[in-house]
Write a structure and sequence with these properties.
The chain has 86 residues and is mainly beta. 8% of the residues lie in helices and 36% in strands. Strand 6 and strand 7 form a beta hairpin.
Length: 86
């Protein structure tokens, strides 16, 4: 039986880029972080995150070219998609 996504998002980054994803579960946790890394990375006084199990998150394949992942431990942006390439 087809399982419908509980949450969907469609984020337009600019005219030519968009990221679409869906999640098939409720969040595991929700946090609001005020650490120096989150403040610098997001340019705000805090960063709100809703956490899901990664096997429950699915990015639309057309979104892959628009994704970039930031590794705080080595301060490197990467196009490696941790959801499909590990």
């Amino acid at each position: 039986m087809l399982q419908l996504a509980r949450h969907r998002a469609d984020l337009a980054l600019d005219v030519s880029q968009a990221v679409k994803f869906e999640v098939n579960s409720e969040p595991v946790s929700s946090i609001c972080c005020h650490c120096d890394t989150c403040r610098v990375t997001h340019g705000a006084t805090s960063q709100r995150a809703v956490l899901f199990k990664k096997e429950m998150v699915r990015f639309d394949p057309e979104s892959y070219d628009s994704l970039s992942f930031y590794q705080t431990h080595d301060k490197v942006h990467s196009s490696l998609n941790p959801y499909t390439e590990r």
